[in-house]
Amino acid sequence: MITKVSKKMNAHKTFDTHSWDGAPKLAVEAIGTFFLVFTVGAAVHSGGTLAPLAIGAVLMVMVYAGGHISGGHYNPAVTLAALVRGRIEPLVAVGYWLVQVVAGLVAALVVRLVVGDAHGDALNPSGHMLADALAVEFLFTFALAYVVLNVATSADHPNNSFYGLAIGFTVAAGAIAVGGISGGVFNPAVLFGGLVMGLFGASTLLYLIVQLLAGAAAGLVFRALNRADA
User: Fold this and answer.
1) Which of 99, 88, 123 is nearest to 197 (CA)?
2) Which of 31, 35, 28 is nearest to 56 (CA)?
3) pTM for this predicted structure
4) Which residue among 84, 98, 175, 190 is buried most deeply as judged by most CB within 10 Å?
5) Got the DSSP string for 59-72?
6) From CA 169, how far away is CA 65, in angstroms rounded?
7) Torsion angle of the four alpha carbons 6, 19, 94, 157, in this order, in degrees rounded to the nearest 10
8) Strand partners, 123
9) Residue 192: pLDDT above 50?
């Protein structure tokens, strides 16, 4: 999900807003996030039991498709993890966050246009159910960002061929394991898109806090466990 480069290359990475150098990265992030959020909405609307597999699969293929250009984050929490890890510059992170959120909102609008409105009540947990949902959102967002950093940025795994598979299956596993508790969001762009699609209620906005905390925590844990690779 994050561009795999050597430390020497990383030291020279820049994001020049006065040239077209950053445009391909932003375009890739927008495309990947769009298809992720669109797949989430369409799969949930269909009510099929294979929705978690579809979501994990589209993330996997988009990571493989765009990882060499933008790093294939498609998730503001992952971008934050990359920022804390030191693999992305602050200005790049801001650009990624903007296009990820906008792409997610556009995807949500397209879902409502071509698939229709959500069926049933929006997920809107409260009380202990909300506490449970926040806990699992933190855990699996952390797991996702932690896996990304280790398989796609670690010096011990240069140019491996399994990074996209590992990332996609992390999301699929999380959706299957805790989808019934929190909805299996793990991504602020998916959260905002889900709100527009009517999948989530107002209380799920609290997911944003724990998702970002989880991304930051994953970056810190990676740095602590990989001091020579920080």
Assistant:
1) 123
2) 35
3) 0.90
4) 190
5) HHHHHHHHTTTT--
6) 16
7) -20
8) 200
9) yes
